[in-house]
Design a protein that fits this description.
By secondary structure, the chain is mainly alpha-helical. The protein is built from 16 helices and no strands.
Length: about 350
């Protein structure tokens, strides 16, 4: 296992480099970069005419070449493509992500500022999803084909078919002062007077603000994970060792929790790190927008819209690095859960 981990760690850096190289090329050659957006704003203010993408003819707008070069230099586009890429990789190796084009703050400080919101949503949603889905999936596997299994499957499919953003809008209408009740706050992660509250009141206020967003994220995750748990247990229950265990006098509960549980939960437990990462950075994008929660999902969306390249590349770099690390952690969990797994022999 140690040699396997060394190989994975050795491949981490070239994999990260390759992914960043591909992302850099795709984004650099995408139409409508920060230079173009700045020219559009300049033309709108000066002539109220829309600037055409990738058209650097300045005759109609009356922009001189010096101004164009100044704008390019402002965003670092006065340097060759390869020079910009090498400079970026050197800086990122030291976790220096530079400054945002539009916020004039360090990118790492912006990410740190937005991180608590996404972590809150991710942790609470993931805990709820696993606490509900695992018992539900096990019970559905034990009672496969029963009335409970059929009814719960109907609710699961129905819950999975509802988009989280649509559910968020429905909750706002029903419970956030829309057309009915005004029980929960409409936006934000805390109240305006949060700093003046006591510790207990701060905790309650914090939970009061995130309960609806967490529910919206959790419902879809419960549907997916509960079916995964059910299918994993059904697959194990059909194997020969289960029949042998029953012939030795073990009841269903003993068979499930002594023999089946560890094997059936292997896939679910090992996917936990990647599930957390996905929940933190991608699962809450629309929820953050709808509930005006200033987290990483909303930050990434705004960075793409504004072509804020430092924020985009820093987010991609951090998410990719964490994703690769989580993959290694998943392999370690595989071995810890089931000692029979040996990745070195498989290689």
């Amino acid at each position: 296992m140690i040699n396997y981990l060394y190989k994975r760690l050795f491949l981490l850096l070239p994999t990260l480099f390759g992914i960043m190289c591909i992302n850099f090329i795709i984004i650099q050659f995408s139409p409508g970069g920060p230079v173009e957006l700045m020219l559009v704003k300049y033309n709108t203010l000066s002539t109220n005419e829309t600037y055409q993408k990738n058209d650097f003819y300045r005759g109609k707008e009356g922009l001189n070449e010096d101004l164009l070069n100044e704008i390019k230099e402002l965003y670092g586009f006065d340097k060759p493509l390869l020079t910009r890429f090498v400079s970026m990789i050197k800086s990122y190796a030291m976790f220096d992500f530079g400054e945002s084009f539009y916020r004039k703050d360090k990118v790492i400080d912006i990410i740190k500022e937005k991180l608590p919101v996404s972590i809150s949503l991710g942790i609470f949603s993931t805990i709820l999803i696993y606490l509900i889905s695992i018992p539900l999936g096990i019970k559905k596997a034990i009672k496969n084909g029963s009335r409970f299994d059929t009814i719960s499957s109907i609710f699961i499919v129905f819950a999975y078919s509802i988009p989280s953003f649509l559910l968020a809008i429905l909750f706002i209408i029903l419970f956030c002062g829309g057309n009915y009740l005004s029980i929960f706050p409409l936006q934000g992660i805390v109240s305006e007077d949060f700093a003046t509250l006591s510790l207990t009141s701060k905790i309650l206020d914090y939970l009061w603000h995130i309960i609806l967003p967490v529910i919206c994220i959790t419902i879809g995750g419960i549907a997916t994970l509960s079916l995964l748990v059910k299918n994993s247990f059904l697959d194990e229950l059909s194997k020969q060792y289960v029949l042998i265990a029953k012939t030795k006098g073990l009841n269903d509960r003993q068979v499930i929790f002594r023999h089946v549980f560890r094997n059936a939960m292997l896939l679910v437990i090992a996917s936990f790190p990647s599930a957390i990462l996905s929940m933190f950075f991608t699962g809450s994008l629309m929820i953050e927008i709808i509930f005006s929660l200033d987290g990483l999902g909303l930050l990434g969306y705004e960075a793409i819209i504004n072509r804020d390249y430092p924020v985009i590349f820093a987010s991609l770099y951090i998410f990719t690095l964490l994703g690769l690390i989580m993959g290694i952690i998943s392999d370690i969990i595989y071995v810890l859960v089931d000692r029979r797994i040996d990745f070195e022999k498989r290689e």
